[in-house]
Amino acid sequence: MTNKGNITIVIADDHPMLLKGLQDELESHGYKVVGQALNGMQALELILTLTPSVALLDIDMPLLTGFEVIKTAKEKRSLTKFIVLSFHKEAEYVSQAKALQINGYLLKEDSFEEVERCIEAAVNDEEYFSRSFDAFSLRNANEELRKLSLLTPSETTILKLIAQQYTSNEIADTLCVSSRTVEKHRSNIIVKLGLEGGTNAVTNWALVHKNTIMAM
């Protein structure tokens, strides 16, 4: 068991009462809370400045969402382990968390015992998702990411542009390639993702899964 006193934590939630309650609970169990934030921008600044062991973040925050904080921090090579605390159980949120390789995903209805289990897993570089998530949702998210991992870097770039509603001609101009090359990549993407439904299949899929795609 990791020594709790050695675990430094930044917490962020735009509800002051929830933030205070979480801080009190963590500190009463021996954890060291080194920073609190009421919005995503504050959270990001604290994470990059204080380099805590763990950051516990709400997803829905002003200025930057919890996911945006994590994505930016990771791009800046942060070594902090990330756990999100949310009311959201929807599959799209699970997929985004998986795409960002977040260490933990907890629901605000979970007990503090589960929070502790998640923190322990995170500091040991393991993944922990709330037991409230059903196995089907987690399997679907893993399968979705497995398919996305089959894409080449060029195909991933094109899929991100498709998700932003670029046309094939606009993608060709942006990437300085021919429209024929873009269409070939689109065909490969359709095959790798196992999509059906004709030429619009990849566009429709990308729009539905935009947040997961952009998190990659």
UniProtKB/TrEMBL annotation:
<dbReference type="InterPro" id="IPR011006">
    <property type="entry name" value="CheY-like_superfamily"/>
</dbReference>
<dbReference type="Pfam" id="PF00072">
    <property type="entry name" value="Response_reg"/>
</dbReference>
<dbReference type="GO" id="GO:0003677">
    <property type="term" value="F:DNA binding"/>
</dbReference>
<protein>
    <submittedName>
        <fullName>Regulator</fullName>
    </submittedName>
</protein>
<dbReference type="InterPro" id="IPR001789">
    <property type="entry name" value="Sig_transdc_resp-reg_receiver"/>
</dbReference>
<keyword id="KW-0238">DNA-binding</keyword>
<feature type="domain" description="Response regulatory">
    <location>
        <begin position="8"/>
        <end position="123"/>
    </location>
</feature>
<dbReference type="GO" id="GO:0006355">
    <property type="term" value="P:regulation of DNA-templated transcription"/>
</dbReference>
<feature type="modified residue" description="4-aspartylphosphate">
    <location>
        <position position="58"/>
    </location>
</feature>
<dbReference type="GO" id="GO:0000160">
    <property type="term" value="P:phosphorelay signal transduction system"/>
</dbReference>
<feature type="domain" description="HTH luxR-type">
    <location>
        <begin position="144"/>
        <end position="210"/>
    </location>
</feature>
<dbReference type="Pfam" id="PF00196">
    <property type="entry name" value="GerE"/>
</dbReference>
<dbReference type="InterPro" id="IPR058245">
    <property type="entry name" value="NreC/VraR/RcsB-like_REC"/>
</dbReference>
<keyword id="KW-0597">Phosphoprotein</keyword>
<dbReference type="InterPro" id="IPR000792">
    <property type="entry name" value="Tscrpt_reg_LuxR_C"/>
</dbReference>
<dbReference type="InterPro" id="IPR039420">
    <property type="entry name" value="WalR-like"/>
</dbReference>
